[in-house]
Specification:
Blueprint lengths: L4 E7 L7 H14 L4 E7 H8 L10 H11 L3 E7 L7 H8 L10 E8 L7 H12 L3 E2 L4 E4 L3 E2 L2 E2 L2 H32 L12 H7 L1
Parallel strand pairs: 1-2, 1-3, 3-4, 4-5, 4-6
Antiparallel strand pairs: 7-8
Helix pairs in contact: 1-6, 6-7
Length: 210
């Protein structure tokens, strides 16, 4: 890679300290051991009051608009929410209601969630994947679910969860790096650094530009 991976990590927790925030930070920290990254965190317990009452993107304050632009231009999104009423938090969904419909096409998304017990683990399949399928994003094959017993004093303490995080990132790296390289090739073609029919340009890039 010719530049660090632009990672935007979003926690849907409405409070701090938070197990969800701890999980997101642990995922990003593990990712940083594998790749050069430039990470930015969005915490809805901090950002939420700025947009909770907004009905349109045009009426959002500047700080929220900037965060939306970060989401829309990320190379990778790490998204997580605690389970509230069998789904992600309302503010988490409200934030993504403002994201442009086509901004996340083919963007890799690492899905994660926290809950009080294992009974909520299917939130990743039943709630997160349908949401990001609407955006035509590339949800990574494995998600990460953590329950209360995986934490001690709002820190990941479970060996099993640490192993799960490592496994998910390991399995996701080929997809993430291939996606970034394709994205960089598109940028190089647009900048005139690569010729469109150059054999170094992946077929997928040609499809995007023709």
């Amino acid at each position: 890679m010719s530049r660090p991976l632009n990672v935007v990590a979003i926690s849907g927790s409405l409070q701090a300290p938070s197990k969800t925030i701890a999980l997101v930070e642990e995922i990003v920290a593990e990712l940083a051991t594998r790749l050069p990254i430039d990470a930015h965190f969005i915490k809805l317990n901090e950002l939420g009051p700025s947009f909770a009452g907004s009905l349109s993107r045009a009426g959002l304050p500047l700080n929220v608009e900037r965060e939306l632009q970060r989401i829309e231009t990320a190379d990778l999104l790490v998204v997580a929410s605690p389970v509230y009423r069998a789904s992600f938090t309302g503010l988490f969904k409200h934030l993504f209601d403002f994201v442009d419909q086509y901004a996340l096409v083919d963007t890799p998304i690492l899905l994660a969630a926290t809950g009080g017990s294992e009974r909520h683990a299917l939130i990743i399949e039943h709630q997160f994947r349908p949401l990001f399928s609407f955006f035509q994003a590339l949800t990574l094959p494995l998600g990460i679910y953590a329950h209360d017993s995986d934490f001690t004093d709002y820190r990941v303490s479970s060996t099993f969860l640490h192993d799960r995080i490592r496994k998910v990132i390991e399995r996701s790296l080929p997809i993430i790096t291939a996606n970034l390289e394709e994205k960089l090739n598109v940028e190089r073609v647009l900048d005139g650094q690569l010729v469109l029919n150059d054999e170094t340009v992946a077929p997928a890039v040609v499809r995007l530009l023709t």
